[in-house]
Amino acid sequence: MLDTHAHLDFSEFDADRDDVVQRMRQVGIDNLIIPGVSPEHWPKQLLIAKQYQSYFALGIHPWFCPANVDETISALTLLVSQLRECPRFVAIGECGLDKLYPDNWSQQLLFFEAQLALAHDVNLPVIIHAVKAHQEILSYLKRHKLPRGGVIHAFSGSSDIALEYTKLGFKLGIGGLIMNPNAKKLLKTVSELPLESFLLETDSPAMTPLNVTEKRNQPANAVLFIDKIATLQKKSSVLISEHLVSNAMQLFDL
């Protein structure tokens, strides 16, 4: 199995990163994708990805948009060109829009569009952070028509919104929220859409599922979501696991 979204480079894992990776592998999560979030994070992210032979993406998260757009996008473009031939570099992101952070909304829009253009130029999928901004994101995606599509990270919306994304070649990242019985829109979406629509992810160290006592989320928790998806889809857990791996391999060309 593959955790398609885990910030293994974050400081929450500094004290026991080896143990976290060992635990992940013991439960059958063979590898993960580490998304990029900001220029300040990229050097450590790349070191951690190399150390554990993890897949990685490069991007600028909407929470971390620097003041200088042109300079930062130029730095990202240069880094992408330097690492373009690395087989573990699989996507642009984590990028996107988050209306819960209105103070830098204009910066978010500029950085998001610039990263979509970059993904188009280098023919890579995108990992998108979408919070309270589906209509804006869909508008940008329809304008840019990315040939490789991507994933809507931590999707929690309705089946109707989900279908709009899948028609554009996007998959939906399913994580810890699926264990919350109050996430009714998400549960309904996972039960209704074809299994080809989904990817398995944790967003570690964030988005810890309700049924886990440790406050920090970790990649090993991804296995907990398989049975829930199987129940909603009325399919076997083995089939769900195999299909989600196949979805990730197809999207990220692994």
From TrEMBL:
SUPFAM superfamilies per the UniProt record, alphabetical: Metallo-dependent hydrolases (SSF51556)
Keyword match ATP-binding: no
Classification via InterPro entries: Metal_Hydrolase, TatD-like
Lineage of the species this protein comes from: Bacteria, Pseudomonadati, Pseudomonadota, Gammaproteobacteria, Alteromonadales
Xref: Pfam families: TatD_DNase
Entry keyword set: Hydrolase
GO MF term set: hydrolase activity
Name listed for the protein in its UniProt record: TatD family hydrolase
